[in-house]
Design brief:
Elements (H helix, E strand, L loop, with lengths): L29 H14 L3 H16 L11 H14 L1
Helix pairs in contact: 1-2
Length: 88
């Protein structure tokens, strides 16, 4: 081994870029992280992979749905009732 190395031409970050992936910084609640870490450990995968799978699953559920397919919330129901009562 050398006593000194020249890192003047070095770059920060991953050595090999991951195609189709983007590095971001995100703030998540501690309980969310702990849930996914426990789930990932039980499944033998990384916790970021588990979070990505959960987001992808939600995306598949919501993709292609129209406003009519979404569940009715109390706020939406009140709005519809007010519009209907006002129209009569």
């Amino acid at each position: 081994m050398r006593k000194q190395y020249d890192f003047s031409g070095g770059k920060k970050g991953a050595v090999i870029a991951s195609p189709g992936k983007t590095r971001i910084t995100i703030m998540l609640d501690d309980d969310i992280i702990e849930h996914f870490r426990a789930k990932a450990e039980a499944e033998g995968i990384g916790y970021q992979t588990a979070i990505n799978a959960a987001l992808r699953g939600d995306l598949k559920l919501t993709r292609g749905k129209t406003q009519d397919d979404r569940p009715v919330t109390v706020a939406v129901l009140r709005k519809v009732l007010r519009e209907e009562l006002h129209a009569t």
